[in-house]
Design goal:
With 296 residues, the protein is α/β, with parallel strands linked by helices. It folds into 2 domains: 154 residues, Rossmann fold (3-Layer(aba) Sandwich), CATH 3.40.50; 134 residues, Hypothetical Protein Tm841, Chain: A,domain 3. Helices cover 38% and strands 23% of the residues. It contains 10 helices and 13 strands. The strands form 3 sheets. The chain has a 6-stranded mixed beta sheet with strand order 10-9-8-13-11-12, sandwiched between helices. It is globular and about 60 Å long.
């Protein structure tokens, strides 16, 4: 093994992925009415129950991972003589990525012959998790750390994170939506189409009328922008709307079926910011995909 791959729970990976790919996972924390929780056991997470809680006005807050937590985790593997690739949630929506850089800088003063490489995925959910899986695959193929980092950073730029939400209130309340002027809300059944930008922020770049149409647009964007679908795993994350996720899966398979479609419940930290009814699609595209400014 040439390096250890570490990621965090915002990557939305199932337990089988963590085990099969020998990934090390750091937990984000979330708080329900002030009580701290983590979600390391994704198979036990009940998304329907969690997201119904939003509708009952349960107060849910989140916190980022601090530098000391990163340092404690990283140092364990440095002491074993391993180099590290940490696959991070976007620096554009969380300060945790910067915390990981601070921890790495501090540790490497004492571990001069070791490497800690931070991959800012500029994404979240499976937009992060699929990149962590790729990191593990590269490690298991014997790819050296320099080549792996180069490929993972390229993949982060080409990984399209596109999604729709039922209510922009959650992104606005958490400060996760960068272009507030584009907020369209739910007036007249208008639904926003959002994406991860070139710097990993969340931006609204289109709007359509009606939930069904918003799902169709996600499918149409896949058909237009996906590359080599038969060779890649595509991700779908949903916040308490499995039927919509299955509808989107059907649209993908009707057009350009990928090798695999992975459907997951949005884990609670990321999910609390996008809110109930969020539906996201993650797939590999061409360089420059993050810069597009129109939905079709």
């Amino acid at each position: 093994m040439s390096f250890v791959v570490i990621t965090d729970t915002s990557g939305n990976l199932l337990n089988r992925h963590v085990k099969d790919y020998n990934l090390k996972i750091l937990p984000f924390s979330y708080y329900i009415n002030g009580e701290e929780h983590t979600c390391l056991d994704t198979d036990a997470f009940n998304g329907d129950s969690f997201y119904s809680g939003f509708r009952k006005d349960v107060k849910i807050t989140t916190s980022q991972i601090n530098p000391q937590t990163y340092a404690d985790c990283f140092e364990k593997y440095l002491k074993e003589g391993s180099d590290i690739i940490y696959v991070s949630m976007s620096s554009g929506i969380s300060g945790s990525c910067q915390s990981s850089f601070l921890a790495a800088e501090m540790l490497l003063e004492n571990y001069l012959n070791r490497r800690i490489e931070i991959i800012d995925t500029m994404g979240a959910s499976l937009g992060e998790g699929l990149i962590a899986i790729r990191a593990a695959q590269l490690r298991d193929k014997g790819i050296d750390i320099d080549e792996a980092v180069k490929e993972l950073r390229s993949l982060s730029e080409r990984m399209f994170n596109v999604f729709t939400v039922d209510d922009l209130m959650f992104l606005r309340r958490g400060g996760r939506l960068s272009n507030l002027s584009a907020i369209v809300g739910t007036v007249l059944h208008i639904k926003p189409i959002l994406k991860g930008s070139t710097d990993g922020q969340i931006v609204a770049f289109g709007k359509v009328r009606g939930r069904k149409r918003s799902i169709e647009v996600l499918g149409e964007m896949y058909r237009k922008y996906v590359v080599n679908p038969g060779q890649q795993t595509v991700g779908i994350a949903h916040a308490g709307c499995l039927e919509d996720a299955l509808m989107l899966k059907g649209l993908l398979n009707q057009t350009l079926p990928p090798k695999e479609i992975l459907i997951v419940d949005y884990e609670p930290v990321t999910g609390s910011h996008v809110g109930p009814g969020a539906l996201a699609l993650f797939f590999e595209s061409n360089p420059g995909i993050r810069a597009i400014d129109t939905i079709l």
